[in-house]
UniProtKB/TrEMBL annotation:
It comes from Coccomyxa viridis. Belongs to the TBCB family. It is found in: Cytoplasm. This is G5798 protein. Gene3D superfamilies: CAP Gly-rich-like domain (2.30.30.190), Phosphatidylinositol 3-kinase Catalytic Subunit, Chain A, domain 1 (3.10.20.90).
Amino acid sequence: MAAAMLTRRDIDALKEYVSAPGNFGQNQAESTVRLHVTHSNLKAEFIELRLDLHMTIDAVMTKLSSHCGTPGGDMLLQLRDNNGKLVAILTDAHRKLGFYSPRDGWVLHIVDTNPNSLSARGWLEDTSKVQKYTMSDEEYKARENTYWKFKEEKLKEDPEWTAEKELCMRRGIPYVPPKQKENIDDEDYMRAEAGALSVGERCEVDPGGKRGVIRYVGRCSGLPEGYWVGVHFDEPVGKNDGSVKGKRYFDCPEGYGSLLRPYKVRAGDYPEVDEFQFSDGDEI
């Protein structure tokens, strides 16, 4: 595959180059509420939305449709409290969301009533069902003006060239080579930082502003010494399903989980995932 010619660092640098800055530090207005959204055909709690209480249920359904693909006409929308108890079924399209007095952290559960929905039978989550376009290395090398040829020329000029180094040069900022991975033998490494994080808290992970929920805090057998934090991301930007080297630390869909060093994780009010970006060697 041609993509195999790109290293992870190349991909990280390119993603950083084309990604817009994240939307940080949002303040919540008094007329809004933060609700988790789940879907009858999707395994993951795929998003947390900030909704205005003055929105009609019809407008809420339209907004939800843009995130999950289920048309409003095929939705049966349920409002549940923090304990999963059904509070109301939102069937009146013209009534405002605030009529039902939802609270931060409650759940909007979408029941897709269409048996032929695109979300049914795993079509939106199981990538094995999607026919993928492939290109051989030979076909890719035969093309003009490709990244591979650009990289080849750059490496001839500078054997230590990387895409990250190139971007720094274009931006006129100093290039700092990545640190070598530390050889840690302290079993209490980053214990204090881990102690400030709790399972169940929303969080943001650097670099990239990836957001999710903390699902594990502690040591990890088979990984370098010290403390790790397990994060269930809102989007498939992780590296695993909550298990590493045959041991499970938490549950999440494949590609939604990662174990990271605590210094990369900030707990707080982070309701939405910003970007698809990957981190460096301190993430496993």
